[in-house]
Design goal:
single chain, mainly beta, Immunoglobulin-like, 60s Ribosomal Protein L30, Chain: A, 3 domains, 5-stranded mixed β-sheet, 3 helices, 22 strands, 43% strand
């Protein structure tokens, strides 16, 4: 009784009922169990320990001869919860969507999140906008883990892209964070870049913040990307986020770039 290829549900109660004969055992640390059967068919019933669940808790077995060894595989799922803050350069990243394995959720205004249904082992925690990722290790069995997750921000120079000779667009980070309304010239410059990125499969739009303002830059980039992938119709996989020394302090820059071949 275990997760597919994973941890076993230790100390679960398994009952085998065959007519008037009832046997009860506990699973071992690896989730395994076995019975010596009486003659005939029977019904296996599983009672899982706290923190485990299974889609099916009963199974018919047999027909068996007296003394036959009875085993059965049950798929069980451990409940793993991760709660904490999402951090960029030590500062919380509020109001973004994140996912880890098949679990997904959002951070609140303080950067706090709760994800439930995570797999065991090392899990990638990904943010949709801006595109960022971190890692956390989850235990083998059921667990409620309180841990902050730090996201890595790449330097623009480490990206395998080169700048396309087109005018970029920059705006104060504070304007993005204050949800200041965009002017017509700003909208025009952004939408021009959004249209250009669709002309070549290798083109990418890079949102670049100053190296010393990664946290605030990431918050501003989250707002900008929602505009790019919403009204401007840019596919999310065409948008990058990085930091650089060349970006003007206090500003978030949007650049048209092209993917380079392997170095």
């Amino acid at each position: 009784m275990s997760e597919p290829g994973g941890a076993g549900a230790a100390f679960a109660q398994v009952t085998l009922a065959q007519g008037d004969h009832v046997q009860v055992v506990r699973t071992g640390r690896d989730g395994s169990f076995r019975f010596r059967a009486f003659e005939g068919t029977g019904m296996l019933t599983v009672k899982l320990p706290q923190g485990w669940s299974a889609a099916a808790g009963t199974r018919e077995v047999g027909p068996a001869l007296r003394g036959d060894l009875i085993r059965a595989d049950f798929v069980a799922t451990a409940r793993r919860v991760l709660r904490g803050r999402l951090l960029v350069a030590g500062a919380p990243l509020p109001e973004v969507r994140l996912s880890a394995g098949s679990a997904s959720g959002s951070t609140d205004a303080q950067g706090l999140f709760v994800l439930e249904g995570l797999p065991a082992g090392v899990v990638d925690v990904r943010v949709e906008a801006p595109p960022l990722a971190g890692r956390v290790e989850m235990p083998a069995g059921p667990a409620d883990v309180a841990r902050d997750v730090s996201l890595s921000v790449l330097d623009f120079g480490s990206l395998r892209v080169s700048r396309v000779p087109q005018d970029g667009f920059e705006r104060p980070i504070s304007d993005w964070l204050a949800s200041k309304r965009l002017g017509r010239p700003e909208i025009g410059r952004m939408e021009r870049l959004a249209a250009l990125v669709g002309l070549d499969p290798a083109f990418r739009l890079a949102m670049v913040a100053p190296s010393r303002e990664a946290a605030r830059g990431a918050q501003a980039a989250a707002v900008l990307e929602r505009y790019l992938t919403g009204p401007a119709l840019v596919p999310p996989e065409r948008v990058l986020f990085a930091v650089a020394e060349f970006t003007r302090p206090g500003h978030l820059e949007l650049l048209l770039t092209r993917l380079e071949g392997p170095r």
